[in-house]
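User: Good morning. I'm curious how pyridoxal-5'-phosphate would be positioned relative to this chain. Could you predict the structure with it bound?
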Amino acid sequence: MGYAPPYPDPSLPPVRVNLYSDTQTKPTRAMLEAMLVAEVGDEQAGTDPTVRMLCERMAALVGKESAVFLPSGTMCNEIAILTHCRPGDEILAHRTAHIATSEGGAPWALTGASVLPLDGAGGKFDVATLTASFRPRTRYAPPQTLVSVEQTSNLGGGAVWSLALLNAVAETAHTAGLATHMDGARLMNAAVASGVSAKDMAAGYDSVWLDFTKGLGAPLGAVLAGTAAFIDAAWRWKQRLGGSMRQAGISAAACLYALDHHVERLAEDHENARVLARGLAQIPGITVEQPETNLVFFDTSGTGMTADLIAGHARRRGVAISTMGKFRGRACLHLDVDRPGVEEAIGVLREAARASLAA
Ligand SMILES: *Cc1c(COP(=O)(O)O)cnc(C)c1O
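Assistant: Good morning! Here's the predicted structure, ligand included:
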């Protein structure tokens, strides 16, 4: 699978339109200026004022008692799992969930917990599927201790879990004695697209985190939130794993800047995603999954060509996309791609599909 990021390659033209991932954003000048004047301290000792401010903002945003700043979303997921689970435990999550597919097997490797993959359209599962996956609490079955959802679902096409489904899944889990975790890598995309607040969406979840390096445009950082006792326990794992930092206020300042300036504009990315989807749908042989947020997934099988082949043609014309399967391409909208960039990408991908058909 062509999941190689668009590294600078002297044999290729520079990337003009980078739809490879919403992680590819560069900090804006204004964000860099906010970083430059950030008040800093010793994050590990709990005395970095900017990190403290960010954690307070995050806790309020998602309606939790406390929060902890971490270098990455992956570390948020894995520290949450280490905190919720014990070796031998089983986590229920969608088959495509980042924790199951994209973290190097960390739940198994670090916690010694396994993930039971659940099925469902758009990276989501319903209450009936969840209930059917519950095991009897006998000495034979792995203890099921955690249900995890991904808002939005990345490999589910950027799909948004409705508030009703989030609440129903959380209530079902809690009634059965399981804790709940929300991988909120793109939680603000979900909030902006649906009009439901992050706080309401997270209400049924014992832990929740937000990534600042996706569409929010910060260079690094994610914040994990939960009860004060949960975050205390998470801090021990952060220390053990080497996730405690020093003058981290430099990066927290970028995250605070993103909360102030880059949340409402996610609506532009969603609109650009719809424009891109409409343009791609008109290319012969391409079928498009209707985007709900900033991710546009499309199928190239009607062109007779793999997604990699089309991505290669596009890359040679300065447009980078990623591929997520033999015939599945993904284009991510974010603050470094504007409407003219979207129009250019549509033209280049149309050419790429035509070139593929001719080849
Ligand atoms: C990107 C992503 C992560 C991991 O975040 P990093 O900050 O890249 O470690 C986790 N879950 C989902 C759904 C993601 O898209």
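The first helix runs from residue 29 to 36. The chain is about 40% helix and 15% strand.
Let me know if you'd like a different ligand tried.
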